[in-house]
Amino acid sequence: MMSLLLAIALSCVFVTSQVAAEESEVVSYAGFQVWKIKPNSGEERQFILDIKDSYELELWNERRMTRDPIDFIIPPQSQTKLKSKLAERKISYVVVISDLQTAIDNQKTNINKTTSDSKAAYNMDWISYHRLNNIYAFLTYLNTTYPKLVQLINIGSSYEKRPLYVIRISNSSSPGTRPAIWIDGGIHAREWISPAVATYIIQQLVEVPANAKLLSNVDWYIMPVVNPDGYEFTHTTNRMWRKTRSVSSTSSCRGVDPNRNFGFKWGGLGASTNPCQDTYRGTKAFSEPETLATSNFIKGKSSQIKLYLTLHSYGQYALIPYGYDVVYPPDYNDLLALANNAASKFVKYTYTVGNSADLLYAASGGSDDWAKSIGIKYSYTFELPDRGTNAFTLPASEILPVCQDFFPALDVFATKVATCCGAFTTTTTKPLTTRTTRPTTTTKRTTTKCPCTCG
C-alpha cells in the first residue's frame, strides 16, 4: 500500500510540473537530482526499468547493453525511497547532478551577454547560450552582409508562428547545382549545445577565409533551430522541455517529440502514444508544422543533398541508421567507415560510433532514418558532449571547446561529398537475415558519372 501511495504521489509531482508548464509558470527543479544507475545483470536492469515505470521517473539516457548505466532525473520526494530500494538489491548509483536547478542557473549565467569586442557586428558568441532572437539576428546579418555567399530561406512557420530558417552557404555561380551537406540542430528543445554548434559551423564557413576550401565543391544547408517554440520555452519556462509546443485535441499535455514524428517507420518502437510522454509520436507522421516544413524542403533538395547530419545531445555518439530497430542498411559499412574517419578528427572528446538501435535503444520516426529512406546515402545523428556529468546543462564554458573539437570532422564529410562524382569504391552487401547480424560485404570497383550518386 505504501508503495502504491508513493507512486501516486510521484505521479502527481510530474503532472504538477506538466500543468505548471502549460500555464507558463516557471518550472523549478530545486532539489531534483540526476542519478546514473548501473545494473550488474539483466535482472537488475529490468528492476531499474520497472522502478522507472512504477514511479514515472524521467529517463534521460539509456544504453542497450545490460551493464551500461542508465540516467534518471529523480524528484526530491522519491530520493530516500529509491536509495533504499537500490540498497536492498545492492545496485550502485552515482549522483551526477546534486541539484538540477543549480546546474540550470549556472548554465544560464552567460546567456545573451554581448561579446567582449564592442565592435562586434552582431550579438552572438560561443561563450554563452543565446535566445532565438539573437540566433535569427545573426543569420539575418550574414544574409545581408555576404549576399554572394549566403541565402537565408524561410521554409515555413512553427506552431506558434515563428519562422523556420535555413541558411544556404555557397560560393558557386550557380547555387543549388553542386552536391550539398545538410546540418540541423535544435530538434529537441533542451539540447542547447546543438544550436550552438550549428551556428558556430555557420560562422566558420562564412566568416573565416581559411575555411574556404570547405566551399570549393560543396554547398551547405544549415538549420540551427528546427524546434524554435520548444527552444524558447526552455529559456522562459521549463529548461527541461523536449518537445514542440503544439496543442492536442485529446489531451491537456502539449507538444510532440519531433524526432519521433518523421514519416519512416513512424509509430514503431520507442515512440509513445501518450501525449504526456517526452517521446510522444504525434497523431500522424509529420503532424507538426516544423517536421513537415523541414522534410518538404529536404525532399525538394534530395537530389543535391548527399549527407544528412543532425546534432543532438548528449552522450558523445556518432549514430548510424537504422534506429527504428536493430537493422542495418545494405551500405552500413560505407556509412561506418566515413563516420569512423570523421570521429578520428576529434581530440578533446571521444565519440562511440555505431548503429543507433544497437548502441542505445530503438526509436522509430527519427529524422536520420527518414533522410536515409529518401535516398540520402550518408545520414547520421551526432550526440554531442558530454557523457552525462552535466548532461543537458553543459556549462557555457564548454561551448567553444565542443565546437572547435567538432569542426575538423566537417572536412572529412565535405571531401567525401565533393569527390563522390569520380571513380570510387562501392560496397555490395549481403541482405540482412537477422535483426542482430551485421551485413557481410564484398567489394568491387565501379566508376560513376555525374550527376553524383555518392555510391
TrEMBL record:
Gene3D superfamilies in the record, alphabetically?
Answer: Metallocarboxypeptidase-like (3.30.70.340), Zn peptidases (3.40.630.10)
GO biological process: one example? proteolysis
Task: Locate the active site.
Answer: 383
Q: Which GO terms describe its cellular component?
A: extracellular space
Cofactor entry = Zn(2+)
PROSITE patterns, sorted: CARBOXYPEPT_ZN_1, PEPTIDASE_M14
Has UniProt tagged this entry with the keyword Signal?
yes
Please list which residues make up the signal peptide: none
- What keywords would UniProt list here? Carboxypeptidase, Disulfide bond, Hydrolase, Metal-binding, Metalloprotease, Protease, Signal, Zinc
Pfam families of this UniProt entry?
Answer: Peptidase_M14, Propep_M14
Q: Which domain of life is it from?
A: Eukaryota
Name the InterPro entries for this protein: CARBOXYPEPT_ZN_1 (IPR057246), M14A-like_propep (IPR036990), M14A_act_pep (IPR003146), Peptidase_M14 (IPR000834)
Q: Which GO terms describe its molecular function?
A: metallocarboxypeptidase activity; zinc ion binding
What family does the Swiss-Prot or TrEMBL record give for this protein?
A: Belongs to the peptidase M14 family.
PANTHER family documented for this protein: FI01817P-RELATED (PTHR11705:SF91), PROTEASE FAMILY M14 CARBOXYPEPTIDASE A,B (PTHR11705)
Q: What is this protein called?
A: Carboxypeptidase A4
Q: Which organism is it from?
A: Daphnia magna
